[in-house]
Specification:
The chain is built from 11 helices and 7 strands. It is α/β, with parallel strands linked by helices. Strands 1, 2, 3, 4, 5, 6 and 7 form a 7-stranded mixed sheet that branches. Helix 2 runs parallel beside helix 3. About 5% of the residues have low confidence.
């Protein structure tokens, strides 16, 4: 059969086959990255490199896809997990040569924005919350409370700084100084990453952009933190045509989703004692993160 005949046969098949089997319909796989980073529980799976690696790899493995779309809705969380996810996205993009879009929903702040910076283009809603490029450590001091209720704290250590920032001991200036030095190092890594990824678009001063402040999507566009204001459907249709398919790449298999073991967590009935308590604490911490952005 001649090349012309093969081409004609292929065009004929493309007209009658379902869109998902047609070679002339562009496909842009979508990976949803939602939730706090490095925080999770039995019914609230968070974002970890271990839970997002598989869907990311599946999305970038779609051979005929010219791009991969990330839908991000995260108030941040673990700096390490954020950086690991960012690096994995960039590694896959470099290996496959695919363009990466990040579409921000309610918020891409702190670690959520670090992940968004792995994209070649960041698109958000005018009312999205973007930014918060900073580092925060928060806790409580209980030393007066345990003294008031008559509780004696007994701790034995090998190492003079092993009790640094213990919430049941008075805060020491040298401990706070050490913590701030660590924060400054992590902050420098974060700001350096943003500069490296968005050097051609940033328009604000370092004191402003890396202060930890956050902005609406429209304001972020003016500062060069994002590239456009819009939504996934309209942007991808404008770029790849009205017939573009955007299948969502889910995490886990069918059986794990049916059993409730989403993103590596077990059903609630299997969580006992300390695990359940840990989940409640993580839920409170995550709620505090979302509340900071009015969500």
């Amino acid at each position: 059969m001649s090349d012309d005949a093969l081409s004609s046969l292929k065009r004929g098949l493309d007209r009658i086959l379902p869109a998902k089997w047609r070679s002339d319909v562009p496909v842009v796989p979508v990976v949803r990255l939602s939730g706090a980073i490095g925080m999770g529980g039995p019914l609230r799976p968070g974002l970890y490199i271990s839970t997002v690696a598989r869907p990311l790899e599946r999305a970038f493995a779609v051979k005929k896809a010219p791009a991969v779309a990330l839908v991000i809705n995260s108030p941040g969380g673990s700096a390490v997990q954020s950086h690991l996810i960012h690096r994995r996205i960039r590694a896959l993009a470099n290996e496959t040569g695919k363009h990466v879009f990040a579409f921000v929903e309610d918020v891409a702040a702190s670690g959520g924005y670090m992940i968004a910076c792995a994209a070649d283009e960041i698109v958000c809603d005018p009312s999205s919350i973007v930014g918060s490029i900073g580092v925060i450590t928060a806790g409580f001091g209980f030393e007066r409370l345990i003294e008031k209720i008559g509780v004696e704290r007994r701790v034995h250590t090998a190492g003079t700084r092993k009790m640094m920032l213990d919430p049941f001991q008075p805060e020491q200036p040298e401990d706070v100084e050490r913590l701030k030095a660590i924060q400054a190092e992590v902050h420098a890594t974060f700001s350096g990453l943003v500069k490296a990824r968005r050097a051609d678009t940033l328009s604000g001063s370092d004191d402003l952009l890396f202060s930890g402040e956050f902005w609406t999507g429209t304001q972020a566009l003016g500062l060069g933190l994002v590239d456009d204001v819009g939504d996934l459907r309209s942007v991808l249709r404008a770029r790849y045509g009205d017939k573009v398919r955007t299948p969502v790449i889910a995490s886990g298999g069918w059986l794990s989703r049916r059993l409730g073991m989403v993103q590596g967590t077990a059903p609630l009935g299997l969580a006992q004692g300390a695990g359940l308590a840990e989940g409640m604490i993580a839920a409170a911490e995550e709620r505090a993160l979302w509340t900071r952005y009015g969500l």
